[in-house]
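Researcher: Next entry in the queue.
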Amino acid sequence: MKVLQINAVYGHGSTGVITRDIEQLCETSGIECYVASPDSKVCEANRGYKIGNIIDHKIHALLCRIAGKQAYFSVWATKRLLAYMNKIKPDIVHLHNLHSNYIHLNMLLQYLAKEDIRTVITLHDCWFYTGGCFHYTTVNCKKWKYKCGQCIKQRQDTPAYIYDASAKIQNDRLKYLSNISNLIFVGASEWVATELSKSRLKECGKICYIHNGFDLGVFSSKTSDLKKRLDLSEKFVVLGPASKWLQSVNKETLEYFTKHLPMDCVLLLFGSDGKEVNLPNNVKLYGYTRNREELAELYSMADVMVNCSREDTLSSLNLEAQACGTPVVTYDSTGSKETVDGMCGYSIETGDYEKLYNFTMKVKEKGKEYYSKYCREFISRNFEKEANYHKYISLYKQLVDE
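Model: Structure for this entry, 402 residues:
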């Protein structure tokens, strides 16, 4: 069996690590796995193919912003990819993230239908069934269920400065995906799989979900002096992703926490360089982590992780923190609610910052050690890398045997 995976990145970032992990598991399972990506790191793969070049990607990005359509350009790069596919003749093509200005999606989908190639699409976000946005929850948009157009997020996820092509994009998705006779959509969470089943594309293929897997060797409880080095030895550390906490939509959440946190607590936000950010004294910035090992050390040092994300297909941050033995308190919208079970952490109705704070204090009262064992067991039981990605191997074999 030959499988070709196509993704925007390889070996780094959440989807790049997933692509590499599936590739490695394929190889140990006797499956020839090829990987195509615009990322130069794809050359590190056993059977890697680099799509396009930096000039093509830049031109694609420019045209995308003018025409309001992503994945409609890179014609020659896509033709060369299709020639490569003709050469290797994959039994299955597995599509991940294609929204990074490197491929002509309609050409690819036409080829998959014409050659009758079994196709798997993993939904790492909502892009495949919308008119181009990655998520729509925070703007409360329902158009994706019926017909996109006059897009509320025209200048956000994939900025379109002149034209709104969201209606055409969604119509094209429906047209070209419905022609693929053997297509399976795999949600990275039950939530996104359920959302797809409410969309216009629900009849295009089968729908299931497979949770992302995590390397419990990398993400595990680490002993270090990081708390001491950060001069937080006497503090109860509330860790949070700066990208979520510093969003304008979470302004009230941040203000409430900083106003009510006890003197022995600190809110430590990671993933920000602090430029143009004015924060109270009980909020500290960590900056950007260099690798997964440093991130695991940061999770392990914290007493609780609080994630006020309002839209995540499946929050990898929540899962990584728990794999390191740190409980999580999170807003429950989208797939985030699937990352806690009430024993290892808590999901709170999105926007209820008082309750988010109260459950953070509940963790403080019980102590981190009360939760750590449950956290590890929950992740091991539901999100262990090899167990979850073996589900893809089973899916591949099922597709070929049909």
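Model: The chain has two domains: 2-213+385-401, 226-383.
Researcher: Noted, moving on.
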